[in-house]
Amino acid sequence: MSNKEAFYFYGLTLRLKHSLSEPMKKALLAFDKFKDALDALGACETVSAVIREHSPDTEIRRMPLSDGGEGFAQILTAAAGGELKELKVAGPRLKPVQAQYGWVQIEKLPSQVADILQIPAQGRLAVIEMAQAAGIESLHASERDPWHTSSFGVGEMMADAVASGADAILLGIGGSATIDLGVGALEALGLQFYDRDLQPVRQMTPARWKLAATVGSTLKLAGKMPPVRIACDVRNPLVGDKGATRVFGPQKGLKARDIPRMERWVDKMARRLLGCFGTDWDSYETELNRPGSGAAGGIAFGLRTALADVELVAGFELFSLWCRLPENLDWADTIFTGEGGLDAGTLNGKGPGSLIQRARPDQQVIFMAGRIDAEVQSRLSNEYPWVSCNALSPAHWPLEKALRETRNQLASRARDYILHS
Predict the structure, then answer these.
(1) Are 76 and 106 in contact (CB under 8 A)?
(2) What tens digit of pLDDT does each residue of 242-266 get?
(3) How many CA atoms lie within 13 A of 39 on its CB side?
(4) Beta strands, E only, 91-196
(5) Final residue of a domain: which of 296, 317, 338?
(6) Are residues 100 and 218 in the same domain?
C-alpha cells in the first residue's frame, strides 16, 4: 500500500469512528461568500442559527472568510475590535454610493500581522475594501462594462484615510468591476490628465483614455501617503495571455470582440504611467509582467507605479494570522465551510480550499457550495476523504432560482447533517 493510500484509509477510518462515536461539540463556521446570493457573514449566521436550534449544546465560533473582496473591511475590522467609518464616494459607474472602511489599532493585532505587512507596530491602520466603491456585485448585469467603470471611489477612501491620520493602509482588491489600472483612484488622489489643448480631462474611465494627450505628474497627497499594503493572492501580470484583460475582462462584462482593443489601451496607458512617474525605460517590460500587477483590473500596477511605498501581501496568509485561523482550526471538531462554487480555483489559494488543506483527518469538514465540479469533488474525495461535499441546489434549477434559494438551501443542508450525522 502506498503512503497516499494509507493516508486515505487512515482519514476514512478516523472519519467513520468520529461520526459513529463523537457528537459535534465544537463547530467552526468558516464560509466565504456565495457570489450574487449571500455574503460570508450571512452564511455563517445562517448555519449558526440551525446549530443553535438543533444542537444547542454545541459551542460555535464564526470566522467568515474573505479573499479581499466583499466583506473584507467589515470582517477584519470586527475581528480586530475596530470601528467602521461611513462616507459617500463615487461608485463603479461614478454615481454616488455609501461606502465603509475600517479603523483598527495595529497594536491590537497579532504581532505577526505588523511583521508581514512591514508597517509600524503601533498606530492606526485603515482597512479599505475596493468592492465598497468599485465592486462588480454592486452593478446589475447590464451595467457591467469595464470601458465605463472606475476605481475613483477607492482613491476617495484612501484620501479620506490619509486626511484622518492613517499610519498605514491595507487595501483588499477582490470583486472589482474595473480594468482601469487604478487610474481612477490616482485621479482621486490628484493625478491630472489633459487633452491636446491642455484642458483637463476628468472621469478617466478606459472609454475616455483616448481624450487624454498628456498625464500630469502631481499627486496632491504623494508626500503624505503612508505605507499601502494590498492583500492579494492573484499572481497574474498586467498584460498578455494571463493578464488583466484576457483573464478577468470577460468576468467583468468585456465583450470578446473588445479584448484586443482593451489590451492595446491597457498597454498604452500603463506605459504612460510608467513614463509619468519616472520608471526606467529598460524596466517597462518587467513592470508590465510583474506578478500581481494584473490583479483587480491593474490597480496594483497603478498604485505601485505612482506611490512610494506599496507592496502586495499574500491575502489568505494575512487573513489566517489576523483571524487566528490555526488556533480556531485546532479548537474545532467540526468545520462548516463553503462558497458559491467548488471548482479548480477552490484548491488553488482560495479561502475554503486553504482551510481544507489545513484541517486534520480527525475533523469533520462539511463543504457546501451552490455548484460542484465533479472532477474537483473526485479529487477531494481521494485526497481529503474526511471532507463531505454538498451541493445546495439541484442541477436542473435555473441560476436565478438557485441564487434566490441559497440561504434556505444552506440551512437545509446544515440541518440534514446535524440530524443524520
Answers:
(1) no
(2) 999 999 999 999 999 999 999 999 9
(3) 15
(4) 96-105, 124-129, 168-172, 193-194
(5) 317
(6) yes
